[in-house]
Each structure stands twice: as C-alpha cells, then as structure tokens.
C-alpha cells in the first residue's frame, strides 16, 4: 500500500531540535504516570470518606454523599474536565481565579486535569467502598456496637479493615481506568502520552509508528499495574471468602 | 466574580439539538453493533474451539487495555487513510461519523462481551444439559434456551453500559465532529460565553444520564422481585 515504514524516526532529533522524538514520547509517558498516580491518591482518600458517609445512619450525611456520587457519575469526563479548566477559574473569587490564570500554563493544565480525574474517580471508588461495607455481615457492626465501641470506632476497628481487603479486586479496575482516562486530558493541551502521539503524527508524518508506539506504552502500563495489583491482592486476601486462601 | 449571561442559549437550541441527534445516533448505532459483535465475541470466548477463544480473549483484552481516546484517534486519523488506499474511496470524503460509530462499536463490543459472557455463565448448567437431552444441537440450545435467559438478566447491565457510552460519545470532540458537546463548545466559543454553555451542557448530560440510570435501577428492582 505504499507506506514507508521508518522506525528509526524515534531516534531523530525533533523539529525544534532540543530532543529526540523518543524523548517526547518519554516526556508524555512520565506526564501520564505523574498525573494518574497523583489523581489516584486523592481519589482513594476522597472516595474512602464519601463511601463511608454513604453508609452512615445520618440521613443528611448519606444524602450529601449520594449527591456527590451521582453528580460525578452522570456528567461525561470530558465535560467535567472543561468545567474545571475553563469554568472554575471564572467562578472562583477574582483574586484566586487570576492567580490561577497567571501560573505556568502547564501547571494550570496539570492541576485542572488532576482535580478532574481525582474527583471523577473518587465517586467510583466511593461506590466500591460502599458495596464493600454493605457486603459485610450486619452482625459485625452489631457485635462492634454491643462490645461498647462507638460508631466511628466500629468503622475504624471492625468494618473498614475487612471492607478494604474485600474491595481490592474491583479497585484494580478503577486504577487501570484512571490511566486510560488520563488520555482525555490531551484535549485541554496537556502533553501526556496520547497528545504526544498526535504531535508525533503532525511532525513526522509517520502515523503508524507513532500510534503503535503509544498504544504499546498504554499496554505496558496496563500489564505493570495488573501484575502489581495481583501481588497486592494475594497479600490481602481474606481467608474463607470466595477467592480467598 | 463572573457575570452570567444566558442569552445565547435560546437561539442556539436548534443547533444544539442537531448535535444531540448526532450523539444519540452514535450511541444507538454503537449499542446495537456493540451488542451483536459482543455476543459473537462472548460465544467465541466460551466456544470449545481454541483458536476462536484465543482470538476473542486477545481482542477483548487489547481493547480493554487502551484508552477510548486512543481508539478514536486511530479511527479518525489512520483508519480512513487505510480504507482510502485499500478500497480506493475518494480522498478526503467525510467519514468522521461512520468512523466514530465503527470505533465506538468495536471498542464497546469488548465491554459488552464481558457482560454477556458473565450472563451466559450465570445460566445454570442443567439448562444446557436439558436442552441437549431434548435433542437440541449446541447452536439451538444456545439460541433458544441459554441466550434468552442470559439476556433477560443482563438487560440492566447492558443499559447501564449504554448510558456510559452516551457519556463517552462526547469524546468525538477529538475529531471536531459537532455532537451535542461539540456544538455547545462551538456556540460558547463563538459568543464568548463558554462558561454558560459548558455549564448548560453539563446540566443536560446530568439530567439525561441521571434519569436514565434511575429508570434502569427501577427496572432492575422489578426484575429482582419477579
């Protein structure tokens, strides 16, 4: 079909001359990893809090947590990203909004992307935490309360240690998702992996090599995360449960 | 603080509705093709013929490992050129809508096939045995006994996946195709009212998806008690 394959393209210096195309790819790869990992840590912390709140007996708190989850689950990720990047700085108090707009553009893109991915994912993590807590036999909570633990203590010492171990497998898929979802951030100009792939197509006119390389990079992330999480799963499995030891 | 001005939305409604039709078109087509292709993949995956099952497993794992944005970029930037050179389509013909539908359908099929595979496996083994005892072939037993029961249980999950797909159609933004979100962005950009248009788009998506997921949940509860 008359296409000139040229895998050597990655070692050539870029049009701007300061790096090789492989260097660009690597920059994007690092950006994807940094963005996904930082967003993941926030998502875990927020998701744990919101997930716990969804199961507490207080109607106001659980209602608030439900609203949080519904909002972040029913608006497309791309729309949320644009809301954080274009709309949020306008709605903040003027001084804060201007301060944000005056920071380095890469920083703006990174912060907006990180907040967006973190909150989007935290709603999903919260759902897993909630279903983990709800899957515990009700006797555990009652036993904790009967022993004289307060409700927060029951959560802290009885329910959460079990629930956290039970939800590791579903969290694995959310962890994988956050890497995949980070590709959406290329739309606001953040130069992560997918964006660098597009840029390579424009600069090198070698679309197949660029896209194959980017796709392989995502597969690589997938494999590494999966084997890492499998290791974690094996170490936290609860004996006596399905899939346990 | 930002001064809101919503006045550009009423005039833009017809244009936004055109965009919404494109979003819905992509969603419905991709759901239908995705379920058909996903069912075939699930049957391949469960089939005793090893190469078929390997192919299906490879396909599903590949598509589930790469971001949807990458799949769409492949379909917008590369597949049209490939088709042009392979089948001699006229250069530069606008294939963005069909590319989008094809990309979404092939991508979603991987997710549908996992739902359908779980659905088929949830049908008790005795059903297959009983069908064979009645003299049905494997194909007949699948088609007349196993799949109807499997699909009945899967409907809520398939619909939920459809809602996710509807949200994901906004990603055709990468091809500048004017779906609902693309249309809203264009209007906002043109009138300098991006804040209002983006908030409006978010609200519309929320109302549609929230209502749809409520209906699915209602149906799911009815199914449970039936």
Automatic annotation (TrEMBL), chain A:
Name of the protein this chain belongs to: Putative glutamine ABC transporter permease protein GlnM
Organism, as annotated: Candidatus Accumulibacter vicinus
Keywords assigned by UniProt, alphabetized: Cell membrane, Membrane, Transmembrane, Transmembrane helix, Transport
Residue ranges of the TM segments: 31-53, 65-86, 106-126, 211-232
Pfam families with a match to the protein in the record: BPD_transp_1 (PF00528)
Claim: GTP-binding is one of the keywords in the record: no
Keyword Membrane: yes
One of the GO biological process terms: amino acid transport
Residue span, ABC transmembrane type-1 domain: 29-229
Location(s), subcellular: Cell inner membrane; Cell membrane
Major localization class: membrane
GO MF annotation terms: transmembrane transporter activity
Protein family membership: Belongs to the binding-protein-dependent transport system permease family. HisMQ subfamily.
Membrane topology, record value: Multi-pass membrane protein
Any GO CC annotation of this UniProt entry: ATP-binding cassette (ABC) transporter complex
InterPro entries (UniProt xref): AA_ABC_transptr_permease_3TM, ArtM/GltK/GlnP/TcyL/YhdX-like, MetI-like, MetI-like_sf
From TrEMBL, chain B:
A cellular-component GO term for this protein: ATP-binding cassette (ABC) transporter complex
Gene3D superfamilies assigned: MetI-like
Domain ABC transmembrane type-1: 20-216
Keywords from the UniProt entry: Amino-acid transport, Cell membrane, Membrane, Transmembrane, Transmembrane helix, Transport
Pfam family, one: BPD_transp_1
Keyword match Nucleus: no
SUPFAM superfamilies assigned to the protein according to its UniProt record, in alphabetical order: MetI-like
GO biological process, one term: amino acid transport
Subcellular location, record wording: Cell inner membrane; Cell membrane
Membrane-traversing stretches: 22-44, 56-77, 197-216
Main location: membrane
GO molecular function: transmembrane transporter activity
InterPro entries per UniProt: AA_ABC_transptr_permease_3TM, ArtM/GltK/GlnP/TcyL/YhdX-like, MetI-like, MetI-like_sf
PANTHER family to which the protein is assigned, alphabetical: GLUTAMATE_ASPARTATE IMPORT PERMEASE PROTEIN GLTK, MEMBRANE COMPONENT OF AMINO ACID ABC TRANSPORTER
Family membership: Belongs to the binding-protein-dependent transport system permease family. HisMQ subfamily.
Protein's job: Part of the ABC transporter complex GltIJKL involved in glutamate and aspartate uptake. Probably responsible for the translocation of the substrate across the membrane.
Name of the protein in its database record: Glutamate/aspartate import permease protein GltK
Organism listed in the record: Candidatus Accumulibacter vicinus
Gene name of this polypeptide: gltK
